[in-house]
C-alpha cells in the first residue's frame, strides 16, 4: 500500500481517534497530521509492519500523551465541549451524550486513551498495551480506575444519561 492510499483509506479514522482522545476537533486534526508526517518519514518501515494502521495509531496516541504533558496543551479547556458544533463528520455519534464527554474530560489523559481505545476503537487489552507500551494488566487497572471515576462522578449528581 502506498502512503497516499493509506491516507485516503485511514486519514479520517485518525482524525476521529484524535478527537475522541483530545475532545477538540482542531487538536484532532493536528494529531492526525503529526502522526501522518511521522509515518511518511518512516513509510517503508510502517508499510512493512504487520498492521500499518496500528503503527500509525500508536504514533498518534504517543503524540497526544506527550502533548498532555506540556503545560500549554493541558491548560486548554476540555470540559465545555460542544461535540455537535465542533465535528463535521460522524465522530459525534461516538458519544452518547454531552454529559459523558464532560465526565471523560475529567479523566487523566492516559485513562481517557485507554477507554477510547477499548470502547470506541474496540481494541483488546493486549493491543491497547502494545499501543501504549505498557502491560495488559496496566491497561485493565487503568480502565478499572477510569470507570470507577466515571461511576463516582455519576453518583455525585453529575447528570449522565444512559
Could you write a compact summary of the structure shown?
This protein is mainly α.
Which SSEs are present, and which pair or pack?
Layout lengths: L2 H20 L2 H17 L1 H6 L3 H18 L1 H4 L8 H4 L11 H8 L3 H12 L4 H8 L3 H20 L7
Helix pairs in contact: 1-2, 1-4, 1-8, 2-4, 8-10, 9-10
Annotation keywords:
162 residues; mainly alpha; Butyryl-CoA Dehydrogenase, subunit A, domain 3; 10 helices; disordered C terminus; RNA_pol_sigma-70-like
| Secondary-structure content class | mainly alpha
Average pLDDT figure: 82
CATH class: Mainly Alpha
CATH topology: Butyryl-CoA Dehydrogenase, subunit A, domain 3
Strand portion? under 5%
Total number of helices? 10
Low-confidence stretches: 74-96, 158-162
Write the element-wise H/E pattern from the N-terminal end onward: HHHHHHHHHH
CATH architecture: Up-down Bundle
Largest sheet: none
Helical percentage: over 70%
- What's the number of structural domains? 1
**Structure summary, number of beta strands:** 0
The shape is globular
Could you tell me how far the N terminus lies from the C terminus, measured between alpha carbons in angstroms? Answer: 41 Å
The radius of gyration is 16 Å
CATH superfamily: PhyR, sigma-like (SL) domain
Pfam family, one: Sigma70_r2
Domain RNA polymerase sigma-70 region: 10-72
GO molecular function: DNA binding; sigma factor activity
InterPro entries: RNA_pol_sigma-70-like, RNA_pol_sigma-70_dom, RNA_pol_sigma-E_actinobac, RNA_pol_sigma70_r2, RNA_pol_sigma70_r4_t2, RNA_pol_sigma_r2, RNA_pol_sigma_r3/r4-like, WH-like_DNA-bd_sf
Amino acid at each position: 500500500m502506498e502512503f497516499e492510499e493509506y491516507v485516503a483509506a485511514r486519514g479520517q479514522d485518525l482524525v476521529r481517534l484524535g478527537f475522541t482522545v483530545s475532545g477538540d476537533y482542531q487538536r484532532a486534526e493536528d494529531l492526525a497530521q503529526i502522526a501522518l508526517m511521522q509515518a511518511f518519514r518512516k513509510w517503508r518501515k510502517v508499510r512493512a509492519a504487520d498492521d500499518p494502521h496500528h503503527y500509525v495509531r500508536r504514533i498518534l496516541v504517543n503524540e497526544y500523551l506527550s502533548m498532555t504533558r506540556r503545560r500549554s496543551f493541558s491548560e486548554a479547556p476540555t470540559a465545555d465541549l460542544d461535540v455537535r458544533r465542533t465535528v463535521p463528520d460522524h465522530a459525534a455519534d461516538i458519544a452518547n451524550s454531552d454529559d459523558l464527554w464532560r465526565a471523560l474530560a475529567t479523566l487523566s489523559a492516559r485513562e481517557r486513551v485507554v477507554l477510547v481505545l477499548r470502547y470506541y476503537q474496540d481494541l483488546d487489552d493486549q493491543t491497547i498495551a502494545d499501543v501504549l507500551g505498557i502491560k495488559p494488566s496496566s491497561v485493565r487497572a487503568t480502565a478499572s480506575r477510569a470507570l470507577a471515576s466515571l461511576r463516582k462522578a455519576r453518583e455525585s449528581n453529575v447528570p449522565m444519561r444512559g
